[in-house]
């Protein structure tokens, strides 16, 4: 399409008489004021595709006209190379081959201000791709916000013009899973908020949601503030934060409430793995889910069966396997699938949305798919690593290479996994692509050189994320460009309540925009990447598709391979609770699913005498008892009952089930699991 | 009748019997033949047998002669909340015999803190005094710890117990954690026993129960509401995952819901060694009665996992049974009188759990599966008797009509019908959950240990005539595959040179290895590894490694190679 579009660009140069009629037609827009968004700019220009198709040429012309208008006040120099090409009769492929920039920027002279907030930008001639539709339109940006979308925009003079030349203009990516400050044994990832966000921007991601990872015993609030402070200083793109809950207790509850209501956090991660460290028992998970649901937060789950992993690790170390291959051997795929299944069951019982982070294996993804078929509110997030590579490298002879792949859940050794995950992503069974970017240098990884359980876990991927989705899904024909936008940006924005501020190109949204070149090919290499890690797990892989230009908050931060960022420009984006996408269904189910008892007469027969001393008090729990030991339920005093001997009951006159809605009636299931 | 008078001896010599004219049905074939029984064993099978005179003849013309049923799950003595079941070994086995079951395997519930051996001895003693048919015993382990290993070894090697049940439910009482299950399964595999699980997620149930009681729901419907199907399914899935990891055969008791049965069926398709056992109640009725206005009726249905409110469940389970995805039918007999159940009249969590079914089991399967055309008579024998005998290593002594097998024989009349009623059944419990249901297929003559114990609708049983049947470890039907996999599934490391690059210094050890007495330790309590002297490593600066000459993967069998999975999951 972009080639095609470029040809149309050449048509811009057609004589005016061919394009004339519409430029003077009723569609021509009147300005409603210099800086206000033009009313209806979006609608009439974009949805009317038929008109658009017919009037292709015509609709080009006024824009080129408007360009002229800009150029009158602007600097004509910047225009030359692209225009020269457009003037030629070359095939469009020649355009890309001759290395000419796909995007050109025309600065209005003397108007460019160093203060980005007041910068005015016009992205011209691009194809705006949202998750629902694609359309040709220009985008006018001012004060870091999108002010106008449409054709024939009336913009003030002195704007900087970015010529997209028919390339895709997409909402900046949102990476929902990064760990840029996650401590491991006191060391921090080599990619901090500065390096990490730089890498993100270079890959077309303009917002990250980082995980705050307090240690057990730490205050969530303090950890949050610590993260926020670090990010405010260093981050180059907007960010938000998930908070991980390392343990469950009463103090945590108060902090959670505060975080949700005052700090703008609506997502919290709980762990089913990392036994004796972060792992929560099913009871704790149930309580946590219940509590977070009341707060309207999204529950993120790290789904692996920690008990079994601990056992397997012991076994494998006992066998003398200490290298990185022990990592996938001790965390087989089944343990991930099992935990996903359990998390979904818990979510269903509590009626709470569940978001599975890091879907790494086919069986885990299939489990999510099946649950969605049954109506569970569950979301799945594959990550760059699982989408682009597999776990065969754990068996590499090169320790450093093998260790670089260590992450949890591990990459599946099955080489068909990436393909399968892309398929599910394309059909909507998985929703969001994260990166789980958490890079440790080789020397940090080498902490575990004699014991794989000590290798810090984490892979890179924040920079490569969007590229690989394009390369492996869109370029392969599995996914269309709209779905691409959905999985890399819009879905995340919706689930985490950033929409439509983020994740959409629309009037009023943040100007986080990427101009995407679907044809650029690059070979991944640690040397060329922004990340500070020495070893890139995608080393040597070719990747089609990449950003040409990235705008963050209306500022050009990446252009033609060059980053222009300032640490600390990233803002913290607060997120409100009860995101619609996750909670609408939950709210309705709440109303429907309330349980009612059966009103029946008191049982008035004989009651067996129970030995008052309950025989079955659990003895002092050994270290291996079930995680939380409560006393068994006390045996009631059964001699005190309030039934009367008269025989008549207060509700004798009520026929069975007349006034009661029984939600799990004979012939039905007790829960909504069979929604289509 | 001319047969011998009762022997007070626990080992009756038995009658000399000839069973004439019946169609013998084993799990693999049916044929017409006569059977001669002497000294409690089958001595001859064939036509025109030469038998001594003065032999009692059992007429089986027009009827089926099948191996006596084996009920692999009964609780005739296991107390709940301080109350013993109202039907003990005598009442229970009497009812069993009446229904055509000639052997039961009862669950020994070992309370936490009680020695396994003493509980076993106590059960065995009681059963030997009371039981009217042969029996064997499962052990229910309610608190796993390493110290049990020796007792387990004794039980398996010397006492003839090869199956152990673990609870994933009954939080803070019997429930085992995943780690415990994994350890226990590993031990059982080494000793050659079968792991059984009561599969329900106890944590979730506990929370749901609290929630429901808060909502003011105290009646028996709270039981089914707090034990939703998913909770069972989840636990079955988890149990299978754990068993897979431990490479241990798994037997899921009481499969009560469609989705749980599906999980088992799917796991079997992936090659797992897992068996599923639906019970009489689950095959015959559904959970709609929990909403009965009559408290006593509703309470009678309380069992865990509960009967599913979905009325299509029995049909579905029967179908899976017929196609072999489920293997064994049992009764999960545990009957408590209404007065006993009424302990929980104000709180459903206190209602003793258990339903009847020991007597109706065979008839239910015949009526629901065979007469409806889902199953043939051989398959019927398999699911009611032979499969259980094979799994629990009693085959061919039990579960088959063959020369040398025990003379536990049932003459089955497929045409007769009976209507279940608490008034006429042989149990003492007042409410029969199958009340009023009519079943085709009735045991007309039952021979247990070579003695006719049911004839003409009259029971003639002797208290204490049942013998304990010891079961050896490593049943072939189960362990052949496990053994082969144990050999295959050994993980191997990658021989690689020592890592000789820089190693990040771990400074703040306090953060990673909490020496502070928090309850949570590091994932792997190997505190030394972190503090190793990293300056001492075994690599030489020569650059050459000892295994440099070995090309990669030449001699190493890598079980989870690139392109393959690390475990065998795709056997068909």
TrEMBL record, chain A:
Compositionally biased tracts (Polar residues): 105-116, 638-652
Molecular function terms, GO-annotated: hydrolase activity, acting on carbon-nitrogen (but not peptide) bonds, in cyclic amides
Ranges of biased composition (kind: Acidic residues): 83-98
Gene3D superfamilies: Metal-dependent hydrolases, Urease, subunit C, domain 1
Keyword Magnesium: no
Amidohydrolase-related domain location: 169-557
Domain of life according to the entry: Eukaryota
Composition bias type Basic and acidic residues, residue spans: 1-13
A Pfam family recorded for this sequence: Amidohydro_1
Ranges where the record places region Disordered: 1-31, 49-118, 614-676
Chief location category: cytoplasm
Keywords per UniProt: Cytoplasm, Cytoskeleton, Nitration, Phosphoprotein
SUPFAM superfamilies: Composite domain of metallo-dependent hydrolases, Metallo-dependent hydrolases
Any one cellular-component term (Gene Ontology): centrosome
InterPro entries: Amidohydro-rel, Hydantoinase/dihydroPyrase, Metal-dep_hydrolase_composite, Metal_Hydrolase, Metallo-dep_Hydrolases_sf
Ranges of biased composition (kind: Low complexity): 618-629
Localization, UniProt: Cytoplasm, Cytoskeleton, Microtubule organizing center, Centrosome; Cytoplasm, Cytoskeleton, Spindle; Perikaryon
The family this protein is said to belong to: Belongs to the metallo-dependent hydrolases superfamily. Hydantoinase/dihydropyrimidinase family.
Subunit architecture: Homotetramer, and heterotetramer with DPYSL2, DPYSL3, DPYSL4 or DPYSL5. Interacts with PLXNA1. Interacts with FLNA (via calponin-homology (CH) domain 1 and filamin repeat 24); the interaction alters FLNA ternary structure and thus promotes FLNA dissociation from F-actin.
Function: Necessary for signaling by class 3 semaphorins and subsequent remodeling of the cytoskeleton. Plays a role in axon guidance. During the axon guidance process, acts downstream of SEMA3A to promote FLNA dissociation from F-actin which results in the rearrangement of the actin cytoskeleton and the collapse of the growth cone. Involved in invasive growth and cell migration. May participate in cytokinesis.
Protein name per its UniProtKB record: Dihydropyrimidinase-related protein 1
TrEMBL record, chain B:
Tree of life domain: Eukaryota
Molecular function as annotated in GO: hydrolase activity, acting on carbon-nitrogen (but not peptide) bonds, in cyclic amides
A Pfam short name: Amidohydro_1
Location(s) in or outside the cell: Cytoplasm
Entry protein name: Dihydropyrimidinase-related protein 2
Region (Disordered) residue spans: 512-533, 550-572
Record-linked NCBIfam families: D-hydantoinase (TIGR02033)
Keyword Cell membrane: no
Keyword list, A-Z: Cytoplasm
Family: Belongs to the metallo-dependent hydrolases superfamily. Hydantoinase/dihydropyrimidinase family.
PANTHER family: DIHYDROPYRIMIDINASE-RELATED PROTEIN 4, HYDRANTOINASE/DIHYDROPYRIMIDINASE FAMILY MEMBER
GO cellular component: cytosol
UniProt xrefs under InterPro entries: Amidohydro-rel, Hydantoinase/dihydroPyrase, Metal-dep_hydrolase_composite, Metal_Hydrolase, Metallo-dep_Hydrolases_sf
Domain Amidohydrolase-related intervals: 64-452
